[in-house]
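cron nightly-structures :: item 1 of 1
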Amino acid sequence: MQSEHDPHIVDPGLRHDLMHALSLLPLHERTAVVLCCQNGLSHNEAARVLDIPLGTVKTNVLRGREKLKRTLAAWAN
């Protein structure tokens, strides 16, 4: 039996909002965020998959996550 507070269970409304917010990101940021944050690749692995420098992956993930946070926070208000 799973707990009410299981971190792997996401409210369907929040999941919809997150997917919509992801769709608004530039492709390079969205790809980096999905690979690292959703698919669990390390930054090094994502850099190899995307054939781009490690620093670029880190920047894209950081910027993408910051934009997601701002977008979701704005929608919550």
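cron nightly-structures :: done
The helical segments are 12-24, 27-38, 43-50, 54-76.
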